[in-house]
Amino acid sequence: MPAYRLRGAVRAADGEIGPPLIDEIITAADRVEAVHLANARETTPADEQVNALWLVDESGTLVWSLRRADREG
């Protein structure tokens, strides 16, 4: 199964993304399942400050991204 990389960081008001605070491997059958698993991930107190998430495939191509405000809004 392909491995995808879920990363998360703090996105500043000017749009600048800080260093990743979340860096996890998601193994999924395809992109659709990987995005589903990324969306289903529970947040922990340690990553409460993270407000930008993104998922890349094995070649580093962006598959999905989300600002946490979009999820909560």
Short overview:
The protein is an alpha+beta fold. The chain is built from two helices and four strands, in the order ββαββα.
- Spatial order of strands in the largest sheet: 2-1-3-4
The best one-word shape is: globular
List how many beta strands DSSP finds.
4
Estimated structural class: alpha+beta
**SSE order, one letter for each helix or strand:** EEHEEH
Instruction: Summarize the main sheet.
Output: 4 strands, antiparallel
- Termini separation comes to 33 Å
Helicity range of the residues? 10-25%
Over the alpha carbons, how many angstroms does the gyration radius reach? 12 Å
Strand content: 25-35%
The pLDDT mean sits at 89
Low-confidence stretches: none
Number of helical segments with 4 or more residues: 2
Give structural notes:
- The termini are far apart.
- This protein has helices at residues 31-40, 68-72, and strands spanning 3-9, 22-27, 52-56, 62-67.
- Helix content is 21%, strand content 33%.
- A four-stranded antiparallel β-sheet has the order 2-1-3-4.
- It is built from two helices and four strands.
- The chain is α+β, with helices and mostly antiparallel strands.
- The chain has a domain at 3-53.
- The model has no long low-confidence stretch (mean pLDDT 89).
